[in-house]
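Thread: sanity check for a docking pose with NAP

Original post by kr_44:
Hi all, I'm comparing my docking run against an independent structure prediction. Below are the sequence and the ligand SMILES. Could someone generate the full complex and paste the structure tokens? I mainly care about where the ligand ends up relative to the chain.
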Amino acid sequence: MRFAVIGGTGLIGSQVVEDLNAAGHEAVPHSKSTGADVISGRGLTEAVAGADVVVNLTNSPTFDEASLDFFRTSMENLLAAARDGGVGHFVILSIVGVDQVPELAYYRAKVLQEDILTAGPIPYSIVRATQFMDFVDAVLSWTADGDTVRLPATPVQPIASADVARAVAEVAAGAPLGGIRNVAGPEIFPLDELGRITLSRKGDSRTVVTDPTAGMFAVVKGDVLTDPRARLAPTRYADWLS
Ligand SMILES: NC(=O)c1ccc[n+]([C@@H]2O[C@H](COP(=O)([O-])OP(=O)(O)OC[C@H]3O[C@@H](n4cnc5c(N)ncnc54)[C@H](OP(=O)(O)O)[C@@H]3O)[C@@H](O)[C@H]2O)c1
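Reply from moderator J.T.:
Ran it for you. Here is the predicted complex with NAP included:
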């Protein structure tokens, strides 16, 4: 099968391209830097031409209110190009429990992305992942101040980006779900504890202070899968760290 992976130069996109090609498919990465701009629409017709499946793994440059415009415009442009190109399956990557956190502009933007896809003309699949292990450092940096990092005890179930990519590639190569596939890592940690484990494993002497009001995850009730039948990815956090 032929895949156009939009955002195919990014963290997840580049691994999805590798996984699909390793499975014998023909997956081509596209992004702003390769000449396909989801905001201006430039190069999208060419990017999706001949593709059976479009996988959209672009991300907004900011997490604020502007992310709503990014996901609205990018989805409208991409869906129009995919429809005109006769694409039969459109896949996006969203966030577990995304519709439960209206306080965050970025989460509202991802819900908007899902809504535009489900209301659109193309058979679709939505993969929702928990927080990537690769982003734990960024989460720590948001509330770091001198010798301390403040974090709430929000339960999180981090997943390795390679496991996310594998799940996206598997869904993209299958029949359209017309719904959502949730994916998460194998372990649940309170976020403050995850911060302590991370700093200690890196020999970082900063202290994690538990603060229920600190950072983005203060308003997230839990970034975990509650469905006991959910499929869990294999990579454990300690193994990923080493
Ligand atoms: N972080 C998490 O824990 C998490 C959890 C669940 C879901 N997600 C979702 O995962 C998705 C992928 O994230 P990621 O971390 O892999 O992203 P990333 O590494 O930041 O990559 C973003 C990609 O988007 C492309 N891009 C940005 N603006 C563009 C534009 N105007 N036109 C075309 N391409 C553009 C970039 O291409 P250039 O480099 O060429 O600009 C790059 O290929 C996101 O939609 C995010 O919401 C993330």
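The chain has a mean pLDDT of 96. Hope that helps with the comparison, let us know if your pose agrees.
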